[in-house]
């Protein structure tokens, strides 16, 4: 049996793909590759074969509904304060302020993106 991390991909629902791409590009400086997959509009987050972690896409279509309920995606950042400033500058909203986890030595925060999704940030100390 091959051992690997169980999660390999995610999709963040969006109503307006161009607005969402602009938001994530300006918050995190991500570059996206846009394409149609199974008749749905997708903007693929960066993916590097030989690096740790997973990747995913912003996804637009009738089955994709932005929400604050359900699964929360955590994005790693080296500067949580800068990321949150970028969120605010892009008209996002901070919904859980920066909080330090002493036991595991990281900072977390949550925000609403341009589409109304609840998204989290994590910075290792």
Automatic annotation (TrEMBL):
Q: What's the domain of life for this entry?
A: Bacteria
Q: InterPro entries given for it? A: Anthracycline_SecMetBiosynth, Glyas_Bleomycin-R_OHBP_Dase, Glyas_Fos-R_dOase_dom, VOC_core
Pfam families listed in its UniProt record: Glyoxalase
Please report the stretch or stretches of sequence annotated as the VOC domain: 6-124
- Parts forming coiled coils: none
Name of the molecule in the record: Glyoxalase
Which species is listed as the source? Chishuiella changwenlii
Q: What is the lineage of its organism?
A: Bacteria, Pseudomonadati, Bacteroidota, Flavobacteriia, Flavobacteriales
